[in-house]
Amino acid sequence: MIYWDRGMNVFGASITSSGDGVLSLLKVACSDPGIPDLAGRLVNVFNRLEIGENHKIVLAARFDGAICMELELPKLPHHEMRKALDFELPRHIPVPIDEVIWTFRTVSEGGAGKGAAQSKVRILSVSRKVWDTTISSVAASGIKADVMTHPVMALRNLPSDPEELLDNHDEMGKALSSLSGSDAGPGKFAGLDVISGLPDEQKTGLLVCLLVGEFILQENVSSENLNLSHLPDSMRPQRFRAIRYSAAALFMLVLVLAGTLIFRSWLDARDRYGKIIAEKQRTLAKIDEFKQERLRNKKTDELVKKIRDSNPGNPEVILCLQLLSQKLPSNMWITMFNSRDNEMDVTICTMKDKDAQADLSKLSSLPNFSSFSIRSTRRDGDGTLTIFVHIVYQDKLKRQKNG
What we know:
Layout: E1 2-4, E2 10-17, E3 23-30, H1 38-49, E4 58-61, E5 67-74, H2 78-88, E6 100-109, E7 118-127, H3 128-141, E8 147-149, H4 162-166, H5 169-180, E9 189-190, H6 200-218, H7 241-309, H8 316-327, E10 332-340, E11 343-350, H9 356-361, E12 369-379, E13 385-393, H10 396-402
Parallel strand pairs: 1-4, 3-9, 4-8
Antiparallel strand pairs: 1-2, 2-3, 5-7, 6-7, 10-11, 11-13, 12-13
Helix pairs in contact: 1-3, 5-6
C-alpha cells in the first residue's frame, strides 16, 4: 500500500495475511519532506519498502475535487449496474459526465424484508484533468502499480465528511477498528510496534494504508473493484520476468525443434516421394517393355502363321525372310509379308525410328536382293513406326550363276 495525502506526503506499508486471518505489518516507510515533488517522494517510499515481484501494489490518492456518494438502487449484476449508473449519475454529479472518470462498488445488499431488492452502491468520481495529472506524476516516478483508488472506497460506512476523517488520527483508529470488527482497534495487525514511535501525522497516513490494505485482504474483494480506471500498460508491473523469459526461450526452442522436425520430415517425405516416382517410372517402363514384347510376340505369331499358310512349293520365301530377319537391327521386327514370284512386300515395325530408314537402306546392298525399296511409312497410335518395304530377291539358280 502506498498512499499520499492532500499535502503530497507519501506513506507506504507492506502488509501480508496469514491463513488464520491475522494481518502482519512487515515494513513501513514515510517520504522525506525534503524531496520537493510527488514523483521523487513516491520513488523514495517505493524503494524503502523493497517491493518484490510477488507483491500486489495498490496506490491510494486524495484526488482534488473527488466526489463520493452512496445511492440506493435495485439489485443488479455488476455489468447491468454500470449501465444503470450511466443513466443515473448525470443527475447527481454537478459536472458533465464525460469530464469525469468514476467507479463504484456495492456496499451492501438488502436481505429478507422490505429492502430485499435494493442495493447500496458507493460511487467515486474524479475529474479527468486531475486523474491525468496524477497519472503523469506517478508515471514520472517510474514505479509500477496494479490499482489506483481513493481511500474512501475502503470505508465500511461513509461518514458525512470523509476528508476530515482521513486527516484525524483518532478517528482513523476507530475506523480501522470498525472495519476489522474488533474493539481492540488495530490490534488485529501483528508488527504494529514499527509505527508506535512515529509522529501522529505519519501514524495517520500509515493507518490509512492499513485501512485500505485490511479491506482488500480481509473483505475478500478484488482490488480491481476499487480501481478508478485501468492504468496504462507502461505503469503496470512486469512480474516474474525470469519465468516469462524462460518460458519464451523454451517456447522458441520448441518452435526450433518443431521446425527442424518438420523440415526433416519434409526431406524424408520428399526423398520417399522421389523414390516412389522413380519406381513408378521404372514400373511404367517395364510395363511398356512388356507391352512391346507382347506386341512383338503377337506379330511373330502372325508371321509364323503366315509362313505356315504360304505355298510350300516356294522355299525361297523362307530363305529370304530368314536372311532379312538376321540382317535387321534388334529394334526392328517383321510383322507381315506377301510374296509373288520373286517379289515380296514386307511390313517392318520399330519403336526407335530415328535411324530406321537408314538402317534399312543398307540392306539393299545384300547380294540376295536384286531390289530393296521403302514404299511408305505409318505412325500407329501406340507410337510404333510401320515401314512398308518392297523386295525383289534372286532365286537359287540366279544366285549360283552370280556366284
